[in-house]
Amino acid sequence: MKLIELTRRLPGGFTIYGDKNTEIIGLCTDSRSVCKGGLYFCIVGMHSDAHDFAPQMQQNGAAALVVERRLDVDLPQICVHNVREAMSYIAAAYYGFPSDRLRLIGITGTKGKTTTSFMLKSILEAAGHKTGLIGTVCTLIGDTELEAGKTTPDPVEFQKILSQMADAGVEYAVMEVSAHALDMHRIDGVRFACAGFTNLSQDHLDYFGSMDKYLEAKLLISSMTDSISVNVDDERVAKAFEARGIPFIRVGIREKASLYAKQIDMTESGADFTLTFHNRASCRVSLKMSGLFNVYNALMASSLADSAGIPLEYIKAGLERITRVPGRVELLQTHTPYRVILDYAHSPDALENILTTLRQSTKKRLICVFGCGGGRDKGKRPIMGEISGRLADLSVVTSDNPRDEEPLEIIREIETGIKAVTDSYIIIENRREAIKYALETASSGDTVVLAGKGHETYQEIKGVKHPFDEKIVVRELLEEI
Fold first, then answer.
1. According to CATH, what is the number of the domain 330-480?
2. Which stretches in the chain have pLDDT values below 50?
């Protein structure tokens, strides 16, 4: 593809220096990689500026560059105001604007994105539509699974996936949309058929600095669709939409909403409720996933399906056929007299939700194994300690993904919160040993919840990802025990 063709939908002012007809045979975002004939993006990062490595890119075979300032190298250059923003539009052009060939549905929010997206995929498939999914756990093209990376991929990978989906005949693509992706322009240039905002709670403050900035980033999705559903029981989110005059579909339980659940009966294995649409239709749903938070997820999935024109009968069928989402309140098959639950809860609200839900169905003791990730929001560590100390009978404080931090320093910050409410906790830095302790300590009627890792199959320590799949770890430990 010629360089000039990649600028077809590029917004704002830009200048091309050099041969506009230079042939481009690939897109490259890493200055260290060899991509002969490729277009290299000179991204300005938090710790480095790729413009400084332009000579290396030329040596690696670059055909042209996308820059924010003209560089003294003998290569054609597209000079733009923001390389990250331009990358999204250029990647879309390179792959033939694949989002034009399918209907894209986006889901943002702190919690519930993954479960809501799996529920929505189930509904769309119940209605006979071939559906793709892009998210934290995996990327699915129909039934074909690709390994997931970021919650929302970088623009080049994102557009490549959409192209694969469109070529495979996918009609709907359901995707999780992170605040980072919106702030970093990863999905600029696409238009959602409809979108949903699940909730907002403390997370990622290491990047955004404040809850207000975190919220502002997520609100960007409202400019990318004409139809957005909002959980109005989350007052902060609802008020933000109202204050900005953004039209939205009201979804909720406590607050008067246009789509809501009533007559909710919680069971050990799920929840039964009456789903009501805009006072025009309703049905009884028997959800096979426990927790009030999953009722909220089901409501959001239902609202998005309704916005996409899916009839009520298929919404009910899709919700009732889904039984699990990987790493989300996932009951492991342990054949023990106690339950072992795997969950991705790694924020205060998520941990409180899972522990509150499991408390209701636990006959005896609730044992919580958890930690906090390194290089992330430190403020949530004592908060999560207090939550586990208050809601669990025994907390096993351990390591999560410490990354470049010292695990014991993270644990000590968690401890400041937990010791303020209880002395029923133990610190075991090694996560495998912590899980072993919990399994050996548990007895009939107890529930052991492994919180924080969920679907992840690794533990990141000092920049290295070590294999650590908690499903495998539990199986191995039970064999040892």
1. 3.90.190.20
2. none
